[in-house]
Amino acid sequence: MKVSGVYKMLLVKLALRNLTRHKRRVIAIAIILAIGIAVYLTLDSLMLGLTQMSFDNLINLETGHLQVVKQKYWPEREDLELENLIVWESKLSEKIKNQQTVKAVVPQLKFAAKLNNGIDELPITGYGLDIDQAAQVFQLKKYIVAGSYFTDSNYQAILGKKLADLMELKVGDYLTLLVKTAEETFNTIDAEIVALVNTQNPKVNSNYVYVPLNIAQNALDVDNKISQVIVRLKYEEEVEETIKQLKKQTIMQEKELAVHSWRDSAESVIAMSKAQNIETGFMMGIILIIAAIGIVNTVILSALERTKEIGMMKALGFKKKEIILIFMIEAAGIGVLGGIIGLLLSGVGVYYLTTVGINLSALLGEQTFGLPVIGHLYGIYAPWHFGFIFISGIILSVLASIPPAYWAAKKDPVKAIRS
Amino acid sequence: MNNILVRLILGLMLVVALSLSGTEIIAAPSAAEIMEQVDEYQHLQSAKIESKMIITKGPRKMVKEMTSYIKGADYGLTKFTNPRDRGSKFLKRENNLWMFFPDAEDIVKISGHMLEQGMMGSDFSYQDLMESTKLADLYQFTIIGEEKVDGRSCYVIEGIKEEGKEASYYRRKEWVDKERFVLWREELYARSGRLLKELQTKKVEQLEGRWYPMYQIIDNKLKKNSQTVYEIKKIEFDLELPANTFSLQRLR
């Protein structure tokens, strides 16, 4: 026999009435569910913000959208050896710049050095940059907290404020970089500090020193060679398309060059993000299991309280699956209620994170605890995550109600009425 | 007649002068020959050295004692014997350097930019230890003067790195004892002309026919108050070292 529309409505009404019988119990379970949802969505917003900020840091301060390097340079890039460098010539520059999607291009020479202040030495990463073009690709200027950007390609240097503080250096002081040339010979770069930067990238703040490209090339004795070409695109979405276009250029094969997306340099951030997602999911899982146990408990208690009623319903012709359906609708009601409260709580949390944010520097002090970002962190609002979690909460509630509902529905009606 | 006599006397004088100057040319060694002799004296066929390093970093002072076994320019094993570092070892095999720290119980290969760090916090970099090529093969040496250092007559020799050769220092200035062929003083420069390190020998001893530096001070000129004293307590030359002395297994 098919369940008619009126009949269905009757089942829904019965379920909803049951929900209002024990308001406190229902609200308690709904709140547990809501907390699980709120914790997940708030942390999720924070993690999305952290990941996005890490990616922005990488693109705006380290890798641009694309890097063009010698094929053999890429696997060994962390070693910062002065091998497999690119001879920087206008022909290559033009070929890259001529791509419609390209906004700006900067040649860069990355090298290992020791920063010396006359008392101590620290290993750092040096960047030789074309100072005019670098301003179009990187956002160094935006983060200057003392001094001003390079004025010319003379012996000038920009470094992170944290590094400068550590070495007791300030704008106007001279620093010494001890480097090794391609022939393994020591050389020094004595440069005046023209600016200090305080970015949201801890590596830039504490490990990088920027000097004009010609100064670096001269000190490292590499003529007009560079380690990579950093490319900034008009739009981030055009990364894959530009890689395809650049790979078609014959100069890329002639010079044995490879193009890498910023994502190729973000492996650690992506891995960290995945690990954090698992962690957040795990936390939510635990809270939702508690909520599921609560729902099972609620259904069992309802069934025990309504044993005679269930017996009566069966005697009146209600089928087992209809009784199960009533309990499922009841659980779905708890799911909807918990979901709505959860979304409201999440809304408040996520609104705070996206508008006010968290000042990591104030929270963590000088320590970064391995985080790839520092400074002010904002959350991200992801509507589809809200929708997904809301529906998941309802499904979980319904699923949790099935076993105890089945147990209640299979009772013998005669015994149930007599009990 | 008088004319002939004058010519004869002048001729004789010329012959004497030429022969004298000729003797002088043969007697005075070239800069390269001097440095080869220095290299020769520094080169150890095989040796066991007991030595001490006193490292000064500002107000801090550290003392490291060690025993080193050396075979030619390519093999060396150093064991630290002072209480704090006892059991730490360094092994050099040709162009490779390993270290063993007993606490970590692991062998670590020192390579790349790690080679530029000071060995055990001293002003000798690992790279300094690794350079086994003779100086005369890496630099173009020229005698630029003569000076006295601590009362000893020295040649002042300047070495400029030869194009294409791999050497840590672009220029070096050496004060070489004219008779003993030891370096009393050495200045090491960067390519930019900046003085990086200065080495002074304060004591030499004649051992088995050669003069050998026994007490040296090295100053890191890029760092204030950074100095390392290297003192040899005992040295034995031409030892019979077991074949496995310089094996990785012996490093543990």
Automatic annotation (TrEMBL), chain B:
InterPro entries for this protein: Sporulation_related, TP_0789-like
This protein's name: Outer membrane lipoprotein-sorting protein
Keyword vocabulary terms for this entry: Lipoprotein
Upper classification of the organism: Bacteria, Bacillati, Bacillota, Clostridia, Halanaerobiales
Domain Uncharacterized protein TP-0789, first and last residues per copy: 74-252
PANTHER family, per the entry: SPORULATION PROTEIN YDCC (PTHR37507)
